[in-house]
Amino acid sequence: MKFLVPICLIFLVACQRVPPNYFKVEGEVLDIRGGVVSQALVRVHAKTSQLSVSHTARTDNRGKYSLLIPREATQGYPERGVILTISAENFSPAWEILEIPDEGFVVQKNIKLTPGRKWRVHVSNPQGDPLPGIEVVACFWHGGRFLNKVFQTNGEGRIEWNNAPSNDFLCSVTEASGTKINYVWVDSEAMESLVTLFPDVIIRGQIVDDSTGKSLVGGAYRFGPVFFGHERNWDELPEVLAEHGTFSQKIPAIIREPSYEEGAIDGGWRFRASAPGYRSQEWEWIPGEYQPEVFVEFRLKRLD
Asked: Which ranges of the chain does DSSP label H, i.e. alpha helix?
């Protein structure tokens, strides 16, 4: 009986440290030579039934970290698991999937970081002039938004990142106004990315009667971005009146959909023209070689 009391006390202390509805992730972060990496940022990306959550900690002067995570946060992200990312100055970030056991309160995970990878970006306009003040965000990595490193190009249109991932990732390049955006897929071999931001394209359109060729004064149009494999709900887009049956619409020259496995997929713009008493007509424009203006004619047929 006298041996039972210490055992119960030990169990109670463990339960106080890790509540039943939580689990603990702990370990140490080292470099490839076994040296301690202090002040590394350790982040656990998890998901509850309603939203994604993130828990963070810093390694101490011994390279150790510890995080308490709600058990409900393991639901489906991935199933019965969480994602662990680690970043530190002068090192490339690391990414791990942690499978959470059905039983047990503590998950041990030690990480070794590799030396940082140097990656440069140069952003210019079509004439080759550098563009300062452009926002470059390293974001998509390992199939999710597990990076959030934000830069702004200097007076020479350049940024340099000394701690880039050693493998592939995706970044967005955006003008301050937000009207020009390009996604750049950076593979593991890339040391520099050259990005060109083009001026907006002007889509000039005309809506006419198919049988007479005359402009339809009551014509209108809707438009929005479209990506391969994505259906567009036209009712969600505002209708714009085409005065005298003509219109002029500015749109970004390049728009791309982030793809986590094959790089950035080119997308485009889809327009739909309509008029009272006529069948609507759709037109899709996929950017190819840059054109400052594009003309399209919608020939609408009367309803039977």
From this structure: 4-17
Cα–Cα distance, 122 to 139 (Å, whole number): 18
Return the number of other C-beta atoms located less than 10 Å from residue 42's C-beta: 25
- Give Cα 198 distance to the centre of its chain: 21
Asked if residues 149 and 160 have their Cβ atoms less than 8 Å apart, the reply is no
- Give pLDDT tens digits for 56-68: 899 999 999 998 8
Handedness of CA 158, 164, 169, 175 (dihedral sign): negative
Six token digits for residue 111: 């990480």
- Rounded Cα distance between 111 and 108, Å, is 10
Are 93 and 86 contacting, i.e. CB atoms less than 8 angstroms apart? Answer: yes
* Nearest by Cα to 100 from 79, 85, 122: 79
Q: What is the DSSP letter of 130?
A: B
Kindly state the percentage of the chain with pLDDT values over 70: 79
Nearest to 46 by CA among 16, 4, 74, 68: 74
- Read off the pTM: 0.68
DSSP state for residue 167 in the 8-state scheme: S
